[in-house]
Amino acid sequence: MEFPRNSVWDIKGADTIGDGQYRLLEIMQEVESLVLCSLSSASTTVRPIAISIETFALLASSKKATRAIYQLPAHLLVDEELIPEEHIKRRDKNFSLIKDIVSDRRFVFEYSTMKRSPLLAEYARQIGVDRKSLARLLTQFWLNGQDRMALLPAFPNSGASGKTRTPGSKPLGAPKQPRTIAFERAKKYIVKDQDKKYFKAALNKYHLKEGGHTLSKTYEYLLKDSYAKECKMADACGRPPHVPSLKQFSYWRTKLFSSEQIIKGRTSENDYLRNKRSVLGCVTDHTHLPGAHFEIDATVADVHIVSELSAQYVLGRPTIYIVVDRASRMIVGMHVSLYHASWRSARQALTNCFLAKSAYCADFGIQIDDSEWPCVHIPRELVCDNGEMIGAQSQKVLTPMTKLSFTPPYRPDCKGVVEKRFDILNDEVIHELLGSTRGRQVIRGSRDPRQDSIYTLKEVTAEIINAVLEHNRSIFDDLAFASPLLVEHDLSPTPINYWKVHLLKHRHELQSANRDEVIARLLPSAEVSMTRSGIYFNGMYYTCSDLEELNLASVARSLGRWRLEARIDENTTNYIYVRLEKNRGFIRCDLLPRSRMLGDKSMFESDFLQDWLDTKKELNPISSASIDNHKNRQEITRQAKRRSKNAEKTSLKDKTSNVRQRRKEELAATTNMLESNIDSPSIPEITSANTDDKVIPLPRGRKRRKGKGES
């Protein structure tokens, strides 16, 4: 077994040497001995001991002596360039005093085997240094590694650093000094053990709790609770009270309580875990494969939007849903809507996550290839907060597809990847838009951001899509250290590169999504009507090739409308998915030209139009003119009834006889037509150019046959 010089050994259970740690100073082959120095002694002068090599080898073979590590003092673990010049001079001076004897093997062996060393005393006389001073330097040299740095002065421990001093009759610390000679400061208070108990009680009662008082306010309560008698006495005598100062109280707060205790005591457990605890790890530490965990969350966008149909109507702030792959930081799905955070909006985001993105982007005027956003997969686990996703409906829908994992309440840090994406989107695009609140509360007197809102929901969604595509192409330093595949293939550490290279090497936990299953399970369901004009939904009409082949509109015209099951994509009004027959899947139906006003818009604009129509109906359910007409009609009816009272005795035959003659008499009585003109069968010839004073009769129609009631 090797016994290297300067090695440290831990000896236990040996008969010839005491237990403890020892440094091997020298190997004396000429006398077959080893020189050891104890590292466990607290004395400043330690004499080494000699032991035979054979005995030490037996201790090592029997595991009574084992290699160990000796922790050097912190003041020795410093760069040479950072040591003050005066410390270097002191170190070199001390080393020059002992360098001649520590290199003398005869002296080392004699010093370790004899109780009195004449060589040390003689050497001390030669250089004019006290023998005990040399003994202390030798001990320091051997304990700390037998090199020049071992003699570096340990000034960091000067002044009893870290130890509590016992006060006497004289106050500790600097005295109170007035700024001018015109005033004299009060005597400094000597803090005793009883005062420390008062400090601790006041801090626990008023300061170290959630929403606790400030230190200065706590100091006031301390004086009221524990030094009230002294304060009253001093006030009556007109002198300063002899009590601890605020500075002393602040000092003893840090002595009586650790920094961690102060931080934990001043906040709640949730706030500490979320904002103040140490962050030694990351949620991505155990997730480096795409698809292992997707995170989903929603936030209210920091921008106000207006309606596409009428820019004068402000619709408020939309809700943004984001789905992020935890390993690659890839935004794999999104949804922007006017609904609040709910299962209805979340299912739209998940639909977008599981289906191809090219068609979705095309609805907002952005043309991309599927390879530019290649996320059409279902994850192994979906991480969400303890909110809209915890309901029975969401679990019933998603559990067959993936595993749901819920974070604790008030712990957004458990899904910090998606939370950080919201910050990135705000900084990159949303806060740059007109009408943005920029994440701050409205200050009184400042301009209301709603006055500047000009963007529609479709325009804001398009901006967010572009920001998401840019995010997926951006470089993130953390990805370079997450997987070696990026370095092996010389790819930039971007989310899309991370995603693609792991899929290429089959290192992922993704599963493919069936389009029909996603549409049937995740898109919001609705009831539509089959009418003679097409499939009706929310004021719009749709059709498809299957509907025209089956001639269902003609059937609805003859037999009446009926209801059908449908799935609605709230991002666009251009199409819906309808189940035409019970045992068939959902078929895409496109918007008819008669509903073109709502084309290329979101479903929220259709809801807006319906609300606008309802408000107009509520605002004017009946016009004033119609009320006047109704009253006039009633008055005319009453007059006619009064006028016809005398004719009630006349029989129906007399009333309806000779109708044609009576019509002629009525025309003659109520107009200025001549009798001859009335009876004339043809239009008379016009003989004069000036016909302003003449009445020209129109041609008469053919004679009608007399009815049964006419005579």
From TrEMBL:
Gene3D superfamilies noted in UniProt: Ribonuclease H-like superfamily/Ribonuclease H (3.30.420.10)
GO BP: DNA integration
Biased composition (Basic and acidic residues): 628-638, 645-667
Start-end of Basic residues biased regions: 700-711
Comp. bias (Polar residues): 158-167, 669-690
Region (Disordered): 156-176, 623-711
Location of the Integrase catalytic domain: 286-492
An example Gene Ontology molecular-function term: nucleic acid binding
SUPFAM superfamilies: Ribonuclease H-like
Name listed for the protein in its UniProt record: Transposase
Organism: Veronia pacifica
